[in-house]
Amino acid sequence: MRWGERVILGGLVLVLISTTVVMVGRQLDLKKEQDTFGMLREKVEEQKNRSDFSAPLVVEGTAGAVEEDRIDERAMLEEYQELYKENTDFVGWITIEGTNIDYPVMQNLADREYYLHRDFYKRDSYAGVPFVGTGDMNLEEGPLFLYGHNMKNGTMFADLLNYQSRDYWEKHSEVLLDTLWDHRQYKIFAVLRVTEREWSENTGLFYFDVIGRCKESDLRIRELKERAIFETSILPNDEASLLYLVTCSYQKKGERMVVVCCKNS
Length: 265
Hints:
The chain is of the alpha+beta class. It has a domain at 89-263: Beta Barrel (Sortase, Chain: A), CATH 2.40.260.10. The chain has helices spanning 3-49, 81-86, 166-171, 197-200, 207-210, 217-227, and strands at 58-60, 73-75, 90-95, 102-106, 131-134, 144-147, 174-179, 183-195, 242-248, 255-263. The strands form two sheets. The protein has an eight-stranded mixed sheet. A two-stranded antiparallel sheet has the order 1-2. The longest helix is centred in the N-terminal third of the chain and has 47 residues, at 3-49. The chain starts with a helix and ends with a strand.
């Protein structure tokens, strides 16, 4: 083997080793992050099973309120009091039974994407934590957009891509979303694949949500139904509170998977 060929081969070996080290490190980090979520789940379950609660935690002026003059005093659900004390950006929990989606939900109105690459404890994190990108979890009504990464190991919001199958939707059509104050149930009624332009262009389906001025509900629901991948036979009324779960699809550049849910009355 010539000297030049040895140099090239050596370089390729170094690149392979470096890539392997990075990949192994990334997988270890992802496992640690999922272990952290596991510990948070355990804390919630421990709180649910306790029978010796003291007086309920009452929050005066909820964190991240969008209306400065709104005074909000409510007794917080017992199972979430400890997590809220650890991080006041914590605003609830999302679960879809039978899937990997079972995570805390974060909200930082000063920096909407703060938890895109930060964990529950505000440390650097590749997977981040599901977060409220539009809306306010502290309000009782109104649309909510929750964002989460589509991780290759099947964690975070990766399972949203399975909703391209009607059969999968039939088996996992219920979404449980707890706020700090109540338990909410939603029904998935539309699944869409859309591009980033739906948020960035003024003709986009979600543009008015970004700027804080939504389209009329009846028009919105009609368009969501028309653009859905399949028909669900569920038609929310024009005053329904909608929940949007959003992740990257990676099927096309800049494409997003959006699973749309309506709150059960």
